[in-house]
Amino acid sequence: MEESKVSQEINSIVSQIECGRKLKEIMHSSWLTFRAFLRDAGFEPDSVKNIDKTTFGPFANHCIANMEGKNAIMTLAALRFILIQSGFPPKNLAELTVPPKSVHETHRRRRRRPQNSSPINISRPGVDE
């Protein structure tokens, strides 16, 4: 199957980025995930600049719902980086983020006061006497 023009653009952009092999793999994987999402939604842009920015919010929600928090963050960050490098206006990428609440929802820790402790009263000599 022949690669689409958009995938060729993305591959060219990623190959020009100076980074390690692992980061390039993450960027390619992020693109493939987004491309599959676009195809499932019926979008086939002919250029990176023609990707509909209204797809970013639903894609972020898709990542949040279907990936572990760290993976969702990495996928969205890598995709943002690729799109910025391709010349996509950064202001149009605001929805490609994971809200902090959704990432930490299951990992929330509450601080509790030990059962037998009470608030500490600090006496101030000369004032509280």
Summarize the structure.
By secondary structure, the protein is an all-alpha fold. It is 50% helix and 0% strand. Residues 91-129 are annotated as: Disordered.
Question: Can you walk me through this structure?
Answer:
The longest helix has 20 residues, at 21-40. The chain has one domain. The chain has 129 residues and is an all-alpha fold. The chain starts with a helix and ends in a 25-residue tail after the last helix. It has helices at residues 5-16, 21-40, 56-66, 69-85, 100-104. It is 50% helix and 0% strand. It contains five helices and no strands. Residues 91-129 are annotated as: Disordered.
End-to-end separation: 86 Å
How is the main sheet built?
none
Order of helices and strands: HHHHH
Number of helices: 5
Q: Regarding quaternary structure, how should these chains be classified? A: single chain
Q: What fraction, in percent, of the residue positions are helical?
A: 40-55%
Instruction: Provide the domain count.
Output: 1
Query: Which value, in Å, is the CA radius of gyration?
Result: 23 Å
Estimate the strand proportion. Answer: under 5%
Task: Walk me through the topology.
Layout: H1 5-16, H2 21-40, H3 56-66, H4 69-85, H5 100-104
Helix pairs in contact: 1-2, 2-4, 3-4
Please name the defining characteristics of this protein.
globular; mainly alpha; 129 residues; 0% strand
